[in-house]
C-alpha cells in the first residue's frame, strides 16, 4: 500500500520526501529550493511539487503578483500603523476568503518581517506551499486540520523565533466564518497580539467555493480595516474564539451578491 501511494504521488508530479525527524530552522532561508520554509519535526513525509507543474505554478504566481500591484488599497492612519508595525512578532489574522490580498498586503506594508503560514504536509498542501514561496511567503509544513497539537506547536515555535505568522481561523476547509478554538492558543502561549485585517471590496468576483472566495477586479479599490486583540482582555479574561470571530466580522463588510 505505501508503495502504491508513492507511485501515485510521482504520477501527479509531487515528490514525497523520505521519512525523517526534522527540526525547525528559524535562522534563515534553507539552502534547498524544495525545502524552503519550515517543516514540523512530527511530520514523517513532506510532499513537494516538481517538474512542469512547478512551471505552471510559477506562471500563476506571476499573475497574482502583477494583479496585486494593480489594486488600489485605501488605508487609514491607524490601520497603516498596524500594518507596518515591526517591533514584535504578531499573528496576522484574516478570513480565508480574503487570502488573495495577502501577498500584496505583505509586500507593501510588512517588508521588514517574514510571514509564515501553516500548510499541510499532504500532496494537496504541496501546491499551496510552492505557491507561497513564489509569491514571497514562507510555508510551515505540518498538519493543519482544526489547529491540532502539531499545528499549534509549530506556529508557537515560529513566533518564539521572532517571526510573524498568518492565520486563517476558518481555513482550510471551513465552516465559513467559524473560528476554531485552537486559533487563539498560539498567541496565548506566546503572549503575542492578534492583528486582525479586513477588506471592504468595491468590485470583486466571488467563487463558488465553500468560503465564497473573493477575487478583486484589477484596478479596483479596496478599503482596509483592522483591529488588535491582546491575548488577555482588559478584564483579565482570556481571549476566546468568539471574541476573534466577532472582531473579524466587524472589520470585514461583505460585498452584496
Structural class category: alpha/beta
In round numbers, the mean pLDDT is 80
- Rg, rounded, reads 18 Å
**H and E string:** HEEEHEHEHEHEHEHEEEEH
- Assembly of the depicted chains: single chain
What overall geometry do the principal axes of the alpha carbons give? globular
The major pleated sheet works out as: 8 strands, mixed
- The level of helicity is 25-40%
Low-confidence stretches: 18-36, 40-44
Distance between the termini: 46 Å
Strand order within the widest beta sheet: 2-7-6-8-5-9-12-4
The total tally of domains equals 1
Strand runs, count? 12
Task: Summarize the structure in short.
By secondary structure, the protein is an alpha/beta fold. It contains eight helices and twelve strands. It has helices at residues 2-11, 52-70, 77-84, 102-109, 123-134, 149-160, 185-190, 241-250, and strands at residues 14-16, 38-39, 47-49, 72-75, 91-93, 115-119, 138-141, 164-167, 194-201, 204-206, 214-216, 221-229.
Amino acid at each position: 500500500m505505501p508503495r502504491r501511494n508513492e507511485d501515485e504521488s510521482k504520477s501527479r508530479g509531487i515528490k514525497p520526501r523520505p521519512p525523517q525527524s526534522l527540526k525547525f530552522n528559524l535562522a534563515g532561508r534553507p539552502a534547498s529550493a524544495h525545502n524552503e520554509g519550515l517543516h514540523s519535526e512530527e511530520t514523517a513525509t513532506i510532499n513537494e511539487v516538481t517538474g512542469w507543474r512547478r512551471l505552471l505554478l510559477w506562471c500563476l504566481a506571476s499573475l497574482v503578483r502583477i494583479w496585486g500591484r494593480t489594486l488600489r488599497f485605501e488605508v487609514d492612519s491607524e490601520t497603516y500603523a498596524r500594518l507596518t508595525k515591526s517591533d514584535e512578532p504578531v499573528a496576522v489574522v484574516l478570513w480565508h476568503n480574503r487570502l488573495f490580498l495577502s501577498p500584496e498586503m505583505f509586500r507593501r506594508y510588512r517588508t521588514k518581517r517574514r510571514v509564515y503560514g501553516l500548510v499541510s504536509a499532504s500532496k494537496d498542501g504541496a501546491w499551496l506551499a510552492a505557491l507561497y514561496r513564489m509569491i514571497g511567503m514562507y510555508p510551515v509544513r505540518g498538519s493543519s486540520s482544526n489547529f491540532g497539537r502539531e499545528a499549534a506547536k509549530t506556529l508557537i515555535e515560529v513566533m518564539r523565533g521572532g517571526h510573524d505568522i498568518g492565520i486563517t481561523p476558518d481555513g482550510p476547509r471551513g465552516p465559513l466564518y467559524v473560528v476554531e478554538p485552537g486559533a487563539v492558543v498560539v498567541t496565548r502561549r506566546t503572549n503575542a497580539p492578534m492583528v486582525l485585517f479586513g477588506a471592504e471590496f468595491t468590485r470583486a468576483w466571488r467563487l463558488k467555493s465553500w468560503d465564497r472566495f473573493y477575487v478583486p477586479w484589477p484596478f479596483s479599490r479596496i478599503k482596509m480595516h483592522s483591529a488588535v486583540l491582546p491575548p488577555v482582555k482588559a478584564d483579565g479574561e482570556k481571549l476566546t474564539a468568539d471574541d476573534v470571530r466577532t472582531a473579524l466580522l466587524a472589520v470585514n463588510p461583505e460585498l452584496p451578491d
